[in-house]
């Protein structure tokens, strides 16, 4: 007898510069999907599993930076490996949708395009850590650098290792994300994130409906109407 295996859930990632609204949109999208009865797991990088969260502290407090960009890339990869094995792959396998705040494209852009780590190293690490757990859809939230900065300026906390980079770094970062989106138009969608959170969320929702829900991506049983 042939057993029918449950279909893998959908995997969505959010990318973009600082203050582009990724965390806000991860929550809004998860809320909308849950209203449709979909099992949703929200997560983030670096982090998303106990081991990777421990590595996040080292990556963001600047301890790793003196080791150089290649070593830093390998620690991001080690964190990703644990995150994929522990959180992402098991969730997708049970049919849940996974929404992740940053993923492999952040490495391609921060460590690759801007950190000058050889693309071959980055692709090799991707094969090892991600394998075929590639996002089905990636939203690249695009805002002018000064808009992103203004949104996070009120936080008043100490800047992390990446936030401390010069403004020119963030301008190049924006360009690198846009170039990446152009190179993978099937997976990546650039969203103008300078609009209100609700407007951005609606644009994202329409894309999810168009690209994933209409394709009959797996869902758990819809909730009974009350
Ligand atoms: N990094 C890397 O180098 N390599 C890698 O492989 C990975 C990561 C995975 C993680 O930083 C750092 O790690 C990141 C890259 C590097 N470096 N930086 N910078 P993080 O996780 O601490 O922070 P972040 O990812 O940059 O996110 P963020 O700066 O915290 O912002 P956000 O998530 O994009 O935005 P938000 O928290 O949703 O919103 C920020 C504020 O704006 C907040 O007050 C909101 O209420 C407000 N907001 C949100 N949307 C709007 C709109 N549409 N209008 C007005 N106000 C808004």
Beta content: 5-15%
- CATH fold-level topology: Rossmann fold
The counted number of beta strands is: 5
From N to C, what is the helix and strand string? EHEHHEHHEHHEH
If you average the pLDDT, what whole number results?
92
Q: Order of strands in the sheet with the most strands?
A: 2-3-1-4-5
Q: Cofactors and ligands present?
A: ligand Z5A
Instruction: Please report the number of helical segments.
Output: 8
Q: Work out the helicity level.
A: 40-55%
Q: Determine Rg (CA atoms, Å).
A: 18 Å
Report the biggest beta sheet as strand number plus sense, adding barrel if it closes: 5 strands, parallel
Supply the CATH superfamily name. P-loop containing nucleotide triphosphate hydrolases
Give the second-level CATH assignment, the architecture.
3-Layer(aba) Sandwich
Q: Give the CA-based shape.
A: globular
User: How far do the termini sit from each other?
Assistant: 38 Å
Task: Summarize the structure in short.
This protein has 226 residues and is of the alpha/beta class. The chain contains 8 helices and 5 strands.
How would you sum up this structure, described in words?
The structure is a single chain. By secondary structure, the protein is an alpha/beta fold. It has eight helices and five strands; from the N terminus they run βαβααβααβααβα. Strands 2-3-1-4-5 form a five-stranded parallel sheet, with helices on both faces. Helix 1 (22-35) crosses helix 8 (197-213), helix 3 packs parallel to helix 5 and helix 4 crosses helix 7. Residues 16, 18-24, 45-46, 76, 102, 106-107, 110-111, 151-152, 160, 162-163, 193, 196-197, 200 line the site of ligand Z5A.
């Amino acid at each position: 007898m042939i057993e029918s295996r449950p279909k893998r859930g959908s995997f969505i990632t959010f990318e973009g510069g600082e203050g582009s609204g990724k965390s806000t949109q991860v929550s809004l999208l998860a809320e909308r999907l849950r209203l449709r009865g979909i099992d949703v797991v929200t997560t983030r990088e670096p982090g998303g599993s106990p081991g990777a969260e421990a590595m996040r502290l080292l990556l963001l407090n600047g301890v790793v930076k003196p080791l150089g960009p290649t070593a830093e890339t390998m620690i991001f990869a080690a964190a990703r490996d644990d995150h994929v094995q522990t959180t992402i792959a098991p969730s997708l396998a049970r049919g849940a949708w996974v929404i992740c705040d940053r993923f492999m494209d952040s490495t391609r852009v921060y460590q690759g395009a801007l950190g000058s780590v050889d693309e071959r190293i980055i692709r090799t690490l991707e094969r090892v850590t991600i394998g075929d757990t590639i996002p089905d859809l990636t939203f690249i939230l695009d805002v002018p650098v000064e808009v992103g900065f203004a949104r996070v300026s009120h936080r008043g906390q100490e800047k992390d290792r990446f936030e401390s980079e010069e403004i020119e770094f963030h301008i190049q970062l924006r360009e690198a994300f846009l170039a990446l989106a152009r190179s993978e138009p099937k997976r990546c969608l650039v969203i103008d994130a300078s609009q209100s959170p609700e407007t951005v969320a609606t644009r994202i929702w329409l894309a999810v409906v168009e690209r994933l829900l209409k394709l009959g991506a797996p869902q758990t049983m819809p909730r009974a109407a009350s």
